Amino acid sequence: MYSNIQKLKDFFLKKKSDLESFYPGINWKRLESEWEVFVLRYSDNARVSNFINLLERATPLEYITGVAYFYKAEFLVDSNTLIPRSETETLVELALKEINKEMRIADIGTGSGCIPLSIAMDAKFPLDIVATDISTSALNTAKKNSFRLEYTRNKKTKLEWVCTDRLKDVKGKFSLIVSNPPYIKEGADRKLVHEQVHNYEPHTALYLKDDDYDHWFSELFKTVYSSLEPRGVFIMEGHEEHLNNLAPLAEQFGLKDVKILPDLTGSHRFLRGIKLEG
Ligand SMILES: C[S@@+](CC[C@H](N)C(=O)[O-])C[C@H]1O[C@@H](n2cnc3c(N)ncnc32)[C@H](O)[C@@H]1O
Predict the structure, then answer these.
(1) In a designed cystine with 258, which of 165, 230, 263, 273 is the match (CB 3.0 to 4.6 A)?
(2) Is residue 71 situated within a structural domain?
(3) What's the pLDDT tens digit per position in 50-103?
């Protein structure tokens, strides 16, 4: 009998070089394990022909299986959410270092909810977290992830999911604000974006208009500053080519001690600043 796994292996061997160009580092073992995840997740409806069709269309593996691994957990993802990236795990670690008491924390542009849910998972104290996104569909996925990961966090930790622009209309102050906002310039940076990313991931999660870039971040820094408590900390992920230019802008809007921090590859990846006065 021609089994599903044999059919998939024959397809892999035949299309190996095409697959390698869309899925860097792909090998048979990885594909086999992604198929197993797909089968587990879609049980009766997991047809090998569907799986192969999606691979032929270069669909990201995480959107095929519906799950991505980030920090210490599995997150549901779909076409409305960015696929969480490994560099963002460092943002979680940086945020955790700031938590030394019960705190109110905000995450701006939460997507799958991977940042606040990972912070909540490892924080030593109960937290009051507000996570925002402009996309209701992304927030729906984040809420599902929150439900699935409820067992990983302190029972007293509270999470609120708010559909809004940055922190608009979110009341109260925060001790810590984190964000992985869209940070690719739609025009100038487009050539550096992998086709698979451009074709499948939500453009609201990836891109900002080139001529609105500084203005968008000015508005972000303004709202962050007014929402931070005195001694509150802001940590943001950003583009390695643009963060240095954003640092003076963050200072212009009141943040102090602004520093650019590296990711694990040494690229300029994070901006950290504090609010000194009340
Ligand atoms: C780069 S993705 C990050 C998603 C997730 N935090 C992560 O790290 O995987 C940026 C997110 O910001 C959201 N977003 C874009 N513009 C926004 C805005 N003006 N206000 C709030 N969220 C926004 C997008 O919908 C997307 O979910």
Answers:
(1) 273
(2) no
(3) 999 999 999 999 999 999 999 999 999 999 999 999 999 999 999 999 999 999
Taking each helix axis from N to C end, the angle separating 114-122 and 136-148, rounded to the nearest 10 degrees, works out to 30
Is 189 within 8 Å of 239 (Cβ atoms)? yes
pLDDT band at 1 (very low <50, low <70, confident <90, very high): low
Of 69, 72, 64, 10, nearest to 39 by C-alpha is: 64
For residue 82, being part of any structural domain is answered with: no
Choice from 133, 164, 224 to test ligand 1 binding pocket (greatest atom count within 8 A of CB): 133
Taking phi first (over 0 means left), then psi (-120 to 50 degrees means alpha), and beta for anything else, what does residue 257 get? left
Domain identity same for 264 and 201: yes
Q: Looking at 123-229, list the stretches that DSSP marks H as alpha helix, in order from N- to C-terminal side.
A: 136-148, 195-200, 203-206, 213-227
First vs last Cα of the chain: how many Å apart? 72
Q: Where would I find the H helices in 69-187?
A: 87-98, 114-122, 136-148
pLDDT tens digits, one per residue of 191-209: 999 999 999 999 999 999 9
Do 97 and 40 fall into the same domain?
Answer: no
**Domain identity same for 46 and 182:** no
Q: Please answer whether residues 63 and 83 qualify as being in contact, where contact means their C-beta atoms are separated by less than 8 angstroms.
A: yes
What is the domain count for the chain?
2
> Is residue 180 within 6 Å of ligand 1 at its C-beta?
yes
The verdict on residue 93 lying in a domain is yes
Task: Mark whether 118 and 52 lie in a shared domain.
Answer: no
CATH of residue 153's domain is 3.40.50.150
Structural domain boundaries enclosing 233: 87-274
Does 115 contact ligand 1 (Cβ within 6 A)?
Answer: yes
pLDDT at 45: 82
Tokens of 166: 């940055």
